[in-house]
Amino acid sequence: MKSFILSGSSIIIIGILIAAITFINKKNEIPANHLEVVLRDIGHQLLLSVKDSTSRVLPIKKLYENTYQISFENSFSFISDTLIHIVEREFQKSALAKDYIVNLKNCTQKETVFAFEINDKKGNLTPCRGRKLEVGCYIIEINLLKRTEFNYYWLMLLIIPLGFAGFYVTDQFRKKEEKTTITDNNNYIQLGKFRFYSDSNVLKIEDRSITLSENETKALKIFAENIHQIVEREKLMKEIWEDKGIVVISRNVDVLVSKLRKKLSGDNSIKIINVHGRGYRFMME
């Protein structure tokens, strides 16, 4: 039962981590239609800043992962700070991105004529501010930087050791249960590596059979019913001998337990420990 609970717990933990990563990824995913609207609005606001309310912003293009292009129908001129302010304002308003790089290129040579980077972690880079760009055909490339990608890798790396740890603990508990739980399999009781056939007074380990005396069988059965508990010396004397009308002394119990220890020596995880002044404790690690 414990191993089942632990196994379930480890699966739940892994499931929660995977769900959390999936949720974060989904949460940070930008819907394509929303992204296009924001980028088109950046182009629109830039044209309005130069008093152009009639020419078109051409369709938004996706160049690479997280890199997009805004292009225009007509040539125009503007001041570099205008583009910085418009992009910052639109991204803040739409919560689209906190970190990004903007490249302004000419349409013919595809050369960068102006660029800036907004990055909370590394610091903003906004060179060439206040300069007026001459009339020309321009395209704007915006690269949305992924800040949380590093954290995702760490979360993914945590899943692997947590999964192994969970399954390792589960396996250890399962093995412990196999050793400490009495399993009545039709005609025998599983005690560690031993199969105890109480009806036929036999212990079996692998392919070897060990014959028990009647008293050894009675004693082992009492111990098997009280694993990890103290079995009083008087209980052994009564149930093994006195109920049959035989009077014995404590020494008889000691001799019987000593013989039983020898026959159980094939499994080091099984121990019969003396409890001073009381009796014995049958232990399985």
What does this structure look like?
There is one protein chain. This protein has 285 residues and is of the alpha+beta class. The protein has seven helices and 15 strands. The strands form four sheets. The chain has a five-stranded antiparallel sheet, with helices on one face. Strands 8-9-10-11-12 form a five-stranded antiparallel sheet. α2 runs antiparallel to α3 (80-94) and α5 (214-224) packs across α7 (250-263). It is rod-shaped, with a radius of gyration of 40 Å. The model is unreliable at 178-184 (pLDDT under 50).
Question: What's the layout of helices and strands?
Answer:
Layout: H1 2-28, H2 32-49, E1 61-64, E2 67-71, E3 76-79, H3 80-94, E4 100-106, E5 112-118, E6 132-136, E7 138-144, H4 149-180, E8 183-184, E9 189-191, E10 194-197, E11 202-205, E12 208-211, H5 214-224, E13 230-232, H6 233-240, H7 250-263, E14 270-275, E15 279-284
Antiparallel strand pairs: 1-2, 2-7, 3-6, 4-5, 4-7, 8-9, 9-10, 10-11, 11-12, 13-15, 14-15
